[in-house]
What does this fold into?
Amino acid sequence: MTKRIFIIALIFSLVSFPAFSHELTIKAKSTEMKANEPFHATVQSAHKFIVPEEVEVLERVKAGIIEDGKFVEAEIRANEPELCIDFTVTPKDLSQSVILAAIKDGETWSITNEGGKTGSRKDLEAQGLKVIRATKNDKYVKAFFNTSHDDKNFASVLGHPLEIIPVTNPADAKVGEYFDVKILLNGQPYTGSVWATYDGFVTEYENTYAYYTEAENGEAHVKITAPGLWGIRAYQGDLPGVEGDYDAFTLRSFIVFEVK
It folds into this structure.
């Protein structure tokens, strides 16, 4: 019976881990954005939208501002009391929307004969462990601020391996209407699951979203059901791994914007 329970638990862990890893998001700490003045934001990692749970490993995270279509990296600082990473940017041009972005070069998580371990297949096997499956998880997030109705900057494509690009201008997002997005996987139209939620929708349960749809040929449509801070998420699992290092590769992408 014990062996059977172990096998069932192992199968569950293999299936569920990639789907229920922490999500990477961005939230502003500042209430107002001004040109050429510091703007404070945080990178959060959690199972609940905009409810921080842990501080990511700084060496694996980059955060900053998009200027002229390019990512300008900012200094990041661990904020243990608030369970997040702090960073500050100084926007130069407020005539268009401001995009903040964060990237996590994901750690490899392995299921072994001694349970879950951080580390690649070859490193853990060198320690004498039996690795059943190793998965690498990379994460990307973009957050939109200072959006205006006549702006086009919000639709900038940054080239993330899995990227959500708004088609609807965040400044035009309205309760009761659809928010349209384009999603690219390695530059090609993505077909698959899309989740969306807003701040405060659920505080009790993890991995619970307000809306679900599926992208077809790179297009998805999310019904906005409440005002406030919204997030839209896409996920691609079971991509080919690197022999000897990890068996599978997953990509996660989030965008964050406000609906007034």
